[in-house]
Amino acid sequence: MPTANAVRYDTIWLRGSDYLVTSLNARFAAHVPELKLALDAGVPAYPDASRSDFYDVALPTGWVYIHIREDKRTVYLVAYSQNQTTSPSIRQHKDDARRKIPT
Question: Domains of the chain by range and CATH?
Answer without folding.
Answer: 3-90 (3.30.2310)
